[in-house]
Amino acid sequence: MHLECSQLSFTYPGSDNAVIENLSFSMEKPGFKALFGPSGVGKTSLAKMIASMVPVNDGQILCQGIETVLYSYNLERLPGWSSCGNHLDKVTPEGKEMLQEQLVDIFELNEVTGSRFSQLSMGQQNRANLIRYLLQDFDLLILDESLANVDEKLREKIILSIKEIFPDKMFLYISHNLMEVSKFCSQILVFGKPGGQKQNFLIHGQDYTQGYELDKESLDHCMLEIMNAF
């Protein structure tokens, strides 16, 4: 499984300023990868290009061993005409009913499956929406702030569970949480400050998994390296 971008550039229609310019990087193997940086530097634009939702202006995106790419994002909404549980039932492929039950339990949504989506809190809405994507067939799932408004303890539980349940899938995680991406992701593409010495660069994170001891010294080093880009 290999994701590679070569000399990638992107400019919004009608604009003269490139959001992404000559970006090259490669990510390999399943697991959690991350895009990290301030708002407006091109993280979502890159994610949508990888998901073939917006055209590539210049450069190439190569996906080896990755056929199906799904893109989920914060504030995405489910239909309001039915309960959250009924909607999940309708979108769950045959044979994945037990997985649905498992995810609803892990995501702590058992008590709200009978409620309409609009009745849920923002954190509950984002969790329900992410379950919808995890139930589908995919090779790469992009999580664009998909766990926003979820408390830190539950977010960690969800991320560790996803890593355990889907060991052969690749996840591209977009978050503004420095500790989180450094702790849980194996590779982090950092979008530095425009005009800075390091505009875009790839570093290795801790890739923490349940049951392994966290190397706090390496974690601190990773976070410091990222912070030095800003």
How are the SSEs placed, and which strands pair?
Blueprint (H helix, E strand, L loop, with lengths): L1 E9 L9 E9 L2 E6 L6 H8 L7 E7 L4 E5 L10 H8 L5 H10 L15 H13 L5 E5 L7 H14 L4 E5 L3 H7 L2 E5 L8 E5 L11 H12 L3
Parallel strand pairs: 3-7, 3-8, 5-6, 6-7
Antiparallel strand pairs: 1-2, 1-4, 8-9
Could you explain the architecture of this structure?
The longest helix is centred in the last third of the chain and has 14 residues, at 152-165. The radius of gyration is 18 Å and the shape is globular. β8 and β9 (200-204) form a beta hairpin. 31% of the residues lie in helices and 24% in strands. The strands form two sheets. Strands 5-6-7-3-8-9 form a six-stranded mixed beta sheet, with helices on both faces. It has a three-stranded antiparallel beta sheet with strand order 2-1-4, covered by helices on one side. It contains seven helices and nine strands, in the order βββαββαααβαβαββα. By secondary structure, it is an alpha/beta fold. The protein has one domain: P-loop containing nucleotide triphosphate hydrolases (Rossmann fold, 3-Layer(aba) Sandwich), CATH 3.40.50.300. The mean pLDDT is 91. The protein has helices at 43-50, 84-91, 97-106, 122-134, 152-165, 178-184, 216-227, and strands at residues 2-10, 20-28, 31-36, 58-64, 69-73, 140-144, 170-174, 187-191, 200-204.
